[in-house]
Amino acid sequence: xxxxxxxxxxxxxxxxxxxxxxxxxxxxxxxxxxxxxxxxxxxxxxxxxxxxxxxxxxxxxxxxxxxxxxxxxxxxxxxxxxxxxxxxxxxxxxxxxxxxxxxxxxxxxxxxxxxxxxxxxxxxxxxxxxxxxxxxxxxxxxxxxxxxx
Length: 149
What we know:
- By secondary structure, this protein is mainly alpha-helical.
- It folds into two domains: 6-91, Hypothetical Protein Yqey, Chain: A, domain1; 100-147.
- The protein is built from seven helices and no strands.
- Helix 1 packs antiparallel against helix 2, helix 5 packs across helix 6 and helix 5 (100-112) crosses helix 7.
- The longest helix has 24 residues, at 50-73.
């Protein structure tokens, strides 16, 4: 059997702990994430890397944030709170976030390096912070910096 990414193995271990503790909420959440990871594994011949596991987790967080917004719009605060709690639980598996100052300096460096439009700057900066920064946060900083030029 192929070697699992450390984060993948950690999620499996946490699922086992949740199962033993009979924590139904954690069991459901981690089971869903593991199903997403296994589906992603089926799409490619080689085992998942930690970056790919982080990508799947980020997508899960994004889905839960979108559901939370819909529940809030639909006046269902109890369901919105559950989605927010699940997103927060998943965020614990992500690497520490990059500060906005660090992102801003990378954006400025990309612009100084010749990237003059949104796509060029995003291409350079996103690749530097893959898995550690949210694309929407980077995008907002890029727009601010390009507008100030």
